[in-house]
Write a structure and sequence with these properties.
The complex is a heterodimer of chains A (435) and B (143).
Chain A lengths: L4 H4 L3 H22 L1 H10 L20 H6 L13 E6 L9 E5 H17 L7 E4 L7 H13 L2 E3 L6 H10 L4 E4 L1 H13 L11 E5 L5 H11 L3 E7 L4 E7 L6 E3 L4 E6 L13 E7 L10 E7 L1 E2 L11 E2 L4 E2 L4 E3 L2 E3 L1 H9 L8 E6 L6 E7 L9 H19 L4 E5 L14 E3 L7
Helix pairs in contact in A: 2-3, 5-6, 7-8, 8-9, 10-11
Chain B lengths: L2 E9 L4 H11 L6 E6 L3 E7 L3 H10 L4 E11 L5 H11 L4 E9 L4 E8 L2 H10 L7 H6 L1
Antiparallel strand pairs in B: 1-3, 1-4, 2-3, 4-6, 5-6
The chains are: A alpha/beta (435), B alpha+beta (143).
Chain lengths: 435, 143
């Protein structure tokens, strides 16, 4: 079953034709309506008319998160603010958040691409979708919501949390599709087990998961625990939200909704565009967005593209699941965390040594962060209660900065590893990168 | 009449206390009294040694975080209620105690308690006024 068979199974030639038309239009539109793009294109000496083939996209400059941040809040909008009907923001974890604005038509596009993806998961109007993605500024909750409503399925907009209640609802409402982050899914499974709820008590037919990195083992575990297939969802706030690429029943990569989002893979060092199958940084261009068209956005997510035909019948290009980041960002419980934020929080403390280490673990399917900080004579107190207080204070600063609770451990001076050049700030023990 | 005390930060990790003590023994320090405060994450090792300033710099040279502080050494009668009498003096003067540790001075056949009140000067004053025997630093470093 396809939601939009006409688009989803277009021939490569037809798709390229459509993409070129849309690329030309969006470049012209951005140039004429967003001063940022006019300035950047002029600096680069490129005019909208120079886009004659799809490959000509390479003449255009990249857009980075810093560019979006500099335009905070509404500098990237291509329409008057009154035409924007919804805004979302990134978590704002590395400074000012980036704002994403949507016109009515953009929301239609969003619900279209999500409807296509949910259809891949087997969703139809008879389904009951339990959406544990958070509703709010985070795009996860609403993206799934719009897609599900477009299909006509019944949505339970429960967001994350209230875990026991989630299980109760899954059982009582006979939820047929569960939307989770993989780690929250595993946690739900664990609690279900504690409550004596088995997959037989549930009516799950599929699981959609996204918003954090995962291993194939995690998927297998999710599938086993819930006795239902689990499918990957990819998206990012800057471009739209979830729905940019989704996994079909073949479970071997995600189909990119390439009539709306044009994907490229670049070498993040040389910035050259790589061939299909080569691993590199994903760059995305909005082909149809009205409110805030983004051209060549560097996602920093590492993946590769496959253009072989898929046995599901869809012809849209497939991307591999995200296997890493080109920066040192950590995704902790779906939230982006950068070492620089931890550092910023630490610097608020007088007398702290600039030596720290961040350790990510996943002891019970939920991410935990430990920050090790070297003590200094200024920090040290002879009093246990004062030292514990200092620890709490640092934890408070970090919580404020990244929005997550962490455990701070004071360690002896000069015990954290020093290295030549770049310090090893992050130790990720979650083992997410194994295939 | 305050006694210098060294407090050393220790990670709650195997061998850390021994490392600190080895540094001191290699430098020929004989420890007069010691206590340790521990939490699940870290510990504070408190020491009385002769030449505390020298000991501090040696420990610091070996990358330990050390704080110099003061405690009061008070003689107490080595029999039931001995410590209680001393604590009663502080209590009556409304002086809060952070921590204490005690040991026996075998040479002089006396029991000694090391006290760390919140206000150390007030503590010394109250003890002396009540006739408690406050031991001077030289005696402690050399017992």
């Amino acid at each position: 079953m396809m939601w939009n068979e006409e688009v989803e199974s277009k021939s490569r030639e037809e798709m390229k034709k459509l993409q070129l038309e849309r690329l030309q239009a969006v470049v012209k539109y951005a140039y004429e309506n967003v001063p940022y793009y006019k300035k950047r294109f002029d600096e680069q000496g490129v005019k909208p008319e120079d886009i004659k083939t799809l490959e000509d996209i390479q003449k255009l400059p990249f857009t980075t998160k810093d560019d979006l941040r500099a335009a905070y809040p509404f500098g990237m909008f291509a329409v008057p603010q009154k035409e924007i009907v919804e805004v979302h923001t990134s978590s704002g974890t590395t400074g000012k958040p980036t704002v994403s604005g949507y016109t009515r038509k953009d929301l239609e596009t969003w619900s279209e691409v999500m409807a296509r993806g949910l259809t891949m998961f087997g969703v139809d109007e008879d389904d009951i979708i339990q959406n544990t993605h958070g509703y709010g500024l985070f795009t996860g909750g609403f993206g799934v919501h719009y897609g599900a409503q477009n299909i006509g399925a019944t949505v339970i907009p429960i967001s994350t949390g209230q875990t026991r209640r989630q299980i109760e609802i899954m059982k009582d409402f006979q939820t047929s599709v569960l939307i989770v982050t993989p780690s929250y899914g595993l946690y739900l499974a664990e609690v279900a087990e504690e409550e004596g709820v088995t997959p037989d008590d549930l009516n799950l037919k599929s699981i959609g998961f996204g918003a954090e990195m995962w291993t194939e083992e995690m998927r297998q575990e999710l599938q086993k625990r819930f006795n239902a297939p689990a499918y990957n969802i990819y998206g990012l706030t800057e471009i739209m939200g979830p729905g940019i690429a989704l996994e079909c029943p073949v479970q071997d990569g995600l189909h990119v909704m390439e009539d709306h989002f044009y994907p490229e893979i670049i070498d993040s060092e040389t910035q050259e565009v790589l061939d299909d199958g080569e691993k590199g940084e994903l760059v995305l261009t909005n082909l149809t967005r009205e409110g805030m068209p983004i051209i060549r956005f560097r996602t920093k997510d590492v993946t590769s593209l496959q253009r072989n035909s898929c046995s599901c019948g869809r012809t849209m290009v497939k991307m591999d699941r995200i296997t890493g980041r080109t920066d040192d960002m950590l995704k902790i419980r779906g939230v982006a965390v950068f070492p620089s934020q931890i550092e910023k929080a630490l610097l608020k403390m007088d007398g702290i040594e600039p030596h720290y280490q961040i350790i990510a673990t996943r002891p019970h399917h939920l991410d935990e962060l430990e920050v090790r900080v070297e003590t200094s004579p200024n920090l040290f107190s002879d009093e246990v209660k004062e030292l514990v207080g200092i620890k709490k204070k640092i934890e408070g600063y970090i919580h404020n900065e990244i929005g997550l609770r962490v455990k701070v451990t004071l360690v002896e001076p000069k015990t954290l590893p020093r290295s030549e050049g770049k310090a090893v700030r992050v130790i990720d023990k979650r083992e997410l990168n194994s295939d | 009449m305050k006694i210098k005390q060294l407090s050393i930060f220790l990670e709650n990790k195997k061998g850390r206390m021994r490392n600190a003590l080895d540094v001191l023994s290699d430098a020929g320090f004989n420890i007069r009294a010691l206590s340790i405060a521990d939490t699940s994450d870290f510990g504070i090792l408190r020491l009385i040694v002769p030449e505390p300033d020298k000991a501090q710099s040696i420990l610091e040279d070996n990358n330990f975080v050390v704080k110099m502080g003061y405690v009061i050494a008070v003689e107490m009668s080595d029999q039931p209620g001995g410590l209680s009498t001393i604590l009663g003096i502080l209590d009556d003067s409304d002086i809060n105690l952070d921590y204490l540790y005690a040991f026996v001075d075998e040479k002089e056949e006396r029991a000694i308690v090391l006290l760390h009140p919140e206000d150390i000067n007030a503590g010394v004053k109250a003890l002396e006024k009540s006739g408690a025997i406050v031991i001077p630093p030289e005696d402690v470093y050399n017992w």
